[in-house]
Amino acid sequence: MDTKVALITGSTSGIGLGIAEHLASMKCSIAFHGLGDPNAIRELVESIQNRFGVKCQFFDEDLNNPENAHTLVEQTVQTFGKIDILVNNAGIQHVAPLEIFPLGEWEKVLNINLTSPFVLMQAALIHMKRQNSGRIINIASVHGLIASAQKSAYVASKHGIIGLTKVAALETAQTPITCNAICPGWVFTPLVAKQIEDRAKASGKTFEEEKLALLLEKQPSGEFASVEQIASLVAYLCSDDAGQIRGAAITMDGGWTAQ
């Protein structure tokens, strides 16, 4: 991995940051992208660069406008000379009953979760085909395989990214380029921790009680998938050993979709 360059969207926090840190620890250069305080992001990127001795650069293209996705790939190539790995991780959510789901929110979710990854894949594939190598990994969700109420845009976008993954895998099937999706269930991130805290305040129960209740509503194992587990799977899919894993939608959901 010490000669590889990875562009990871949504990599300034949560799952994306975990993936970036893991790949950087394997000496992969990282193109960061995401939201947050500019000073905090600068410190974060510099810290990872210094800790692991790899080249890192942050790009702040707004993927609400899918045209910026093409610019993001070109900036990565101009800065690092190439792109070996694309991880489409950035995503947003909006919850509302279908009949009153705002069209503007639908468009935002689809732009971030599906249309921008489509444009990123288009742009990255041009470079990957030219260099005859590459890995595309789409962070989908169990909601790319099953549905939950009041999440129409999110479910549609995640089903769409799995379909897009399969098409890309077929179109690159006779090349060294692969495209796969990872479908996490509940993952313990700061946003999920806040959700559990809010549930605990409302119910009067402890954090641990509400954590288990939240998990067991969907995830039979009663355990979260960890950011580190997802990052390790990304690294494996980037390896030569995973060269014949193509078009897969790999679940990491504690048995959620096995029910």
Question: How would the blueprint of this fold be written?
Answer:
Layout: E1 5-8, H1 14-25, E2 29-33, H2 38-52, E3 56-59, H3 67-80, E4 85-88, H4 103-131, E5 134-139, H5 152-171, E6 177-184, H6 190-203, H7 207-216, H8 227-237, E7 249-252
Parallel strand pairs: 1-2, 1-4, 2-3, 4-5, 5-6, 6-7
Short key terms for the protein model shown above:
14% strand, 2 domains, 7-stranded parallel sheet, Rossmann fold, 8 helices, alpha/beta, single chain, 259 residues
What amount of the residues lies in strands? 5-15%
- CATH architecture heading of the largest domain: 3-Layer(aba) Sandwich
Mean pLDDT: 96
| Total number of distinct structural domains | 2
* Number of helical regions: 8
User: Distance between the terminal alpha carbons, to the nearest Å?
Assistant: 37 Å
**Uncertain runs:** none
